[in-house]
Design goal:
The chain has 267 residues and is α/β, with parallel strands linked by helices. The protein has 11 helices and 15 strands.
Length: 267
Amino acid sequence: MEKLLNKKGFICDMDGVIYHGNRILPGVHEFVTWLQQEKKEFLFLTNNSSKTQRELQAKLSRMGLDIDEKHFYTSALATAEFIATQMPGAKAFVIGDPGLHNALYERGITLDDVDPDYVIVGESASYTYENICKAVRLVLNGARLIGTNSDLTGPTENGIIPACRALVAPIELATGKAAYYVGKPNPLMMRTGLNLLGVRSQDAVMIGDRMDTDMVAGIETGLDTVLVLSGVSSRETVEQFPYRPRLILNGVGDIAAAASEMEPAAQ
């Protein structure tokens, strides 16, 4: 734990780590206060593509956390950056919420449901059978299939719900085309996160609730890894994977608690 507390940069997942849906998780206030007081570089890196940075800031503000927009980075932003780099001025048919649409617009990507270069799928309240059929037709006609992230499920205050990869699956199955997933554990998103923090990988830690995305992302990028059990993982699910996080904690509140315990010892 002392090694963790001495890290300069903290990359934290959001769903299952900071909140479930609209419910903040225990110990989060204390953890964020510790990050700010210790002047740690930190970034909330979420695979959920639904919300913009400003919407995420407003959401946490309603929960009593005052955090600047610069501390948020989403798979929507990573996807927009990837496509703008691959094909400037690209056209795309998009199944997604405002966070994804806004990110693509800001990078000069045009919405097109007739002859797009890409079909892009993220978490969406507008996910319909009609949109799936249209996406299938467009992919069969040559559009490249992109998923904002590879999460199969996500935690909410009401339990587990389907996430991006589960939404992309029908299109993959119907077309026989595999999607390219941009979010964690894709190194593209992790390297951008480190660049935004301005720290080296050996000086940073990845904190998340998923073995298949967060921990893989941290391990493959050379970060310290902390799995929290406040989201979709349990100690039993950890045993299903051939790799391990360095630390397993109940939640991020354990970090703030450990820091408080070490302060008297340091004095």
